[in-house]
Design goal:
Two copies of one chain form a homodimer. The first copy, chain A, is of the alpha+beta class. Chain A has nine helices and 19 strands. In chain A, strands 1-2-6-3-7-18-8-17 form an eight-stranded mixed beta sheet, sandwiched between helices. Chain A has a four-stranded antiparallel beta sheet with strand order 13-15-9-16, with helices on one face. In chain A, strands 4-5-19 form a three-stranded antiparallel beta sheet. In chain A, a hairpin with a 2-residue loop joins β1 and β2. In chain A, α7 crosses α9. The longest helix of chain A is centred in the first third of the chain and has 17 residues. The first copy, chain A, starts with 7 loop residues before the first helix and ends with a helix. Chains A and B meet through α5, β13, β14 and β15 of A and α5, β13, β14 and β15 of B.
Chain lengths: 351, 351
């Protein structure tokens, strides 16, 4: 059985060495469930390969600490190995170091100063519909009820508040086909996207401050396709754009903005995921930032914190891993950072 | 055996009814070879499914009359059928009506006023390397020696002189990949094609007069591709352009022009086919235009006349079919136009 009394660095290595590529988390989820179920101060439930453990101390405040158990595919980087202060291996940074910290807190803080829900979930690294958090939010939303959530994704030990939303849309220009030898009988749809690109090049992204954090939006073409054959004036050209929007906007407002930017063109929404407010103005968050220290920054990429935000739970990203090493063959985590992270979280839940 | 003594309209129908989709011309080529070989005034040779027949009267002038035997795939439009003045069926316009006229001339003009080479070739409707004329020009260029050539492609009974050349090139813009949530760390290659499109939109095509005919050039995007994934700033975008150039330019000059238009961008040549001068200033061409009547116009699309031009043989397109019906399921040819075309060609070779 997973020994939760061991040092957090050793626990990280132990967890890394239980391979858990997305879809193959069962062995690790079993170990986590068994170890937590052995602790009398926790109420443990499970759904699929997601394990939820709660303290029930009757506090007026409840915080949620979450981490995903899965990793990207192993790339010859298991078992883990230590080199100096670094622990190498698949999932060290993203995010078994964070999971180890959460497990240590679950085991060593039987009477926290606020009730805690620990969530260890599956399939974060694959499509959203397989994501364990998506499933829990849909089938057991009550399990996720909390005043504040910390998602232990790698942030290099810095609090990253909320996340930006993302929206993809297609801007379509139509024309009229003709043989390219008599091009003046046609209307060239590829030529017709020039003003679409001009608007993108002229676009000035907003950098709004939300709950004290500065976000940084972006509107970009991420794809373009057009063309029928080498001798045909094309009658269709489609520019795919991606809008990353700050958490002061809803999906609907973001869509409206994109439609305004491309006013006069046919715009169709492809998909969107909401932004999440950082929630750092909440008192329990203030206690968290005080315990962790440093200056919180805005999370620009989209993460699962948006799922908490959608349930009305303000959430931040915070973890000992290095986000720049995520998904890389040479992934590692700094061992002192794990210890530091455990210390900060312990302070938050005990002082 | 194909009866070359029958009326040209009936002969057209007879030829149309011998299916000859590109690659399947053998039955028709056999019939053509057998019918021509029976005529004592012709010297007949064959290469693959291409049949060449020559008069050897010792004239100082030799003209060449060519037509392709193949058609695009049959689309439920065989056998042929007559409705009023129209003959419907696959290949009627493109170009068995022209082939029928040429066969009638070969059969009924045993002593033309200038020597004639008749060329009936295969695989015009498919890729250039399978084209019978490409093969003959490479392996038996002497067979194509002439002072002037008439390619009986459908032109609605109007002489269309020469043809424009065609050149395809790729204009490539590179950038730098980045996650679209932090787009300012990247350089968006799709955004980078805006000036390429601006130059295309501002482009003023030339309309030069060559040998008395006005051509009309065109420079167009015929394809665009770019994009890595919905969350990645793309580092590559390629615009495929097609330049249709008048016969006062060589391929080299056309390429140089395209490179000048896109100065500052990476331009790579994909393929090119030369233009062909109309050659209407040659005396034998003057006799031809006098016989056919009407006002010759410039051929804007690329045709096999360029292959004759490349061999130093001025060439025109002239045939009874309607070019706008080519490759269409409802293809037909006007029966009076076939008769008119036979009459005009007969005048040219006998008066």
């Amino acid at each position: 059985m997973l020994d939760l009394t061991q040092d957090v660095r050793d626990l990280t290595a132990a967890i890394v060495d239980i391979e858990s590529v997305s879809g193959g988390e069962k062995a690790l989820a079993d170990e986590v469930e068994r170890a937590l179920a052995a602790l009398p101060h926790l109420k443990v439930t499970r759904s699929g390969e997601t394990v939820v453990a709660r303290t029930e101390q009757g506090h007026s405040e409840r915080v949620l600490i979450a981490g995903h158990l899965d990793t990207v595919p192993v790339a010859g980087n298991l078992p883990s190995r230590v080199e100096g202060d670094l622990l190498y291996g698949c999932g060290t940074s993203d995010m078994k170091a964070g999971v180890a910290v959460a497990l240590r807190l679950a085991a060593t803080v039987p009477a926290p100063n606020r009730d805690v829900t620990y969530v260890f979930y599956d399939c974060e690294e694959v499509e959203a519909e397989r994501n364990g958090l998506t499933r829990i939010a849909r089938d057991h939303a009550g399990w996720l009820a909390a005043d504040f959530a910390v998602l232990m994704e790698p942030t290099d030990g810095v609090i990253e508040g909320g996340c930006q939303g993302t929206l993809r849309a297609e801007v379509t220009v139509t024309g009229k086909r003709a043989h390219s030898a008599r091009s003046w009988f046609g209307v060239n749809a590829i030529h017709g996207i020039e003003p679409v690109l001009a608007r993108l090049n002229a676009y000035e992204p907003r950098r709004p401050v939300v709950d004290g954090l500065e976000y940084h939006e972006g509107l970009n073409a991420v794809g373009v396709r057009g063309g029928v054959a080498g001798n045909v004036i094309p009658d269709l050209c489609v520019v795919s754009v991606n809008y990353r929007f700050a958490p002061d906007q809803s999906i609907e407002e973001a869509e409206e903005h994109v439609r305004e930017v491309f006013d006069g063109f046919a715009v169709s929404l492809v998909d969107a995921a909401p932004a999440a407010r950082p929630g750092l103005t909440h008192p329990v968050a203030a206690a968290f930032t005080a315990a962790v220290g440093g200056t919180p920054r805005a999370k620009l990429g989209w993460t699962d914190v948006a799922r908490f935000s959608a349930l009305g739970v303000p959430a931040v990203n915070y973890g000992p891993g290095d986000p720049n090493l995520a998904h890389q063959q040479g992934e590692y985590v700094s061992l002192p950072k794990i210890v530091e992270s455990e210390r900060a979280m312990l302070d938050w839940l005990t002082i």
